[in-house]
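In line with agreed milestones, work has continued on tokenised descriptions of protein folds. One protein thus recorded appears below exactly as we store it:

>
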Amino acid sequence: MSNPRHDSFRKTPFWRRRMGQAHFYASLGLIAVNLVVYLLTEINGVLVGVLALQPAAVYGEGAWWQLVTYMFVHTNFSHILYNMVFLAIAGMAVEQRMRSYEFLTFYLVCGTLSGLVYLLVGSVTGLHLTFLLGSSGAIYALILAYAVFGFEGRNLFIPFAFSLVFGAIQYSGLVIAGAVPLFSLVSLVQAANVIVVVAVVFRPEWMRNPFHIVFLFGTLDVISEAINPIGGVSNLTHLAGFVFAFFYLLIRYRMNAWTVYRS
């Protein structure tokens, strides 16, 4: 006698077969690995060159592991703090929905493919010696999944708003010190960031929709890429995180992010 569950599994295409349902807090494990790697790179800066993604090292020295390891390397404390806050909030929620094995696969696949985009684009644009580091590509993928699964947008908006205001304060310090000009495109963007935060604070219903966070992230990256197309190539890897998450969710869960947003 055939087993209905076994027959159903055999008929399901392998790209839609569910992984194990275990839940072992993989998101917290990722945070721990990121923190350990950050401490190690602070102790020995040479490790940054080994683990961060550099097109020249990948092509010339066969350092293909960098497509994965770059996600665990960060430039400074504020960089890793910002990413880990979003990994904690969005990651734990998405992991609860996906379960841990699927969550890890989603995170690593989207992050690796985002790194591959940098590898290709960075080589074409002559940035083959420039390093890419940080988990932002995978974090952006998590943010889209967070929105598609319908979690509370306000939870992400609070750290997002804090980062924009903190960045504007830091930039203001550079302006006062005379390190950067007051009237520039970057100054305009910083001012616009603060205006966006203030506007949303007075429209709390707007921040409840998590897709609005997706649009804010995407818009800021498009603007950053427009005003600094060479130095801002990493913005493309951020946006790539959205793209790969979109197709992952479409293929694995039959969930179209655009359709979910419109519904």
The radius of gyration is 20 Å. The mean pLDDT is 86. DSSP finds 13 helices and no strands in the chain.
